[in-house]
Amino acid sequence: MSVRYEPGETLVHRLDPRGKLAVQIAVALAALAHTTPRGLVGVTLLTAGILAVSRTAPAAALAEFKLVLPFLVGGPLIEGVTLGPVGFSVTQAIPPALAAYRTVLLLLVAAVYVRTTPVRESRAAIQRTVPGKPGQLLGLGVGFVFRFLPVLRRDIRRLRDGSAARLGTERPVRERMRLLAIGGLNRAFRRAETLELAVQARCLAWNPTLPRLRFARRDAPALALAAGLLVVAVV
Asked: Which residues of 129-161 are buried (b: 16+ CB within 10 A; e: fewer)?
């Protein structure tokens, strides 16, 4: 399963997508500006609050990024290895470990946004923020990505499961990676061709009728939080 919109009645679900985008960007800027352990503690508490309000389980959200997590864990381990003499330096591993942890926090915040925001509202937020054709192109791209990536992930999972059922796990790792990459690319190209035909058949509109967005009183705390985080990032 991939991260996707899940209908709900939480406060985060009811917020304007532009406010949620502002909070997401502000959290990223604050995390990048304050890279010390104390700063990351603050971002951790904020992320925990966002997860709680949106009723998103951290373990379930992290499970959606299981392909990325090994790289985040492996980076600090590789950076800490010393060659002369051979050993492990905790001092060298701490900066990349903090950076990896910061990335995990940002992934969690991004997962909350995707889980609580319909694709059409995300597209509407982008097109109303970026004027003209550029905004329409960005909105269209966001819609395609949110809808296309989960399908590709399901295809890759089916390829992996089919290979395992045929004793593919007995093959060398390099051979398994090659077969999975080739099969995944073939599926992706076929999906792209099908998507192209579907778009042409439906007379794709560059500027369709999108949901109406309007800030309400419930959006005030989110906007205030975003403004406060921007100040923290700058200061």
From this structure: eeeeeebbeebbebbeebeeeeeebebbeebbe
| CA neighbor of 139 nearest in space, from 151, 130, 148, 149 | 130
**CA-based nearest residue to 67, from 153, 187, 148, 151:** 153
Is 119 within 8 Å of 146 (Cβ atoms)?
A: yes
CA separation, residue 200 to residues 8, 89, 138, 145, 167 (Å): 33, 57, 19, 18, 41
Query: Which amino acid belongs to residue 90?
Result: V
Joined together, the tokens standing for residue 82 give: 């010393």
Count of positions (residues) in the chain: 235
Cβ-proximal residues to 215 (8 Å cutoff; 6+ apart), any chain? 16, 18, 19, 223
Chain center to CA of 87:
35
Q: What is the pLDDT of residues 22-44, one digit of tens each?
A: 999 999 999 888 888 888 899 99
Summarised one tens digit per residue, pLDDT across range 163-196 is 888 877 778 878 877 887 888 788 777 877 777 7
Instruction: Map out the domains of the chain as residue ranges.
Output: 1-118+211-235, 131-210
Q: Do the Cβ atoms of 140 and 123 come closer than 8 Å?
A: yes
**pLDDT below 50 — which residues of the chain?**
1
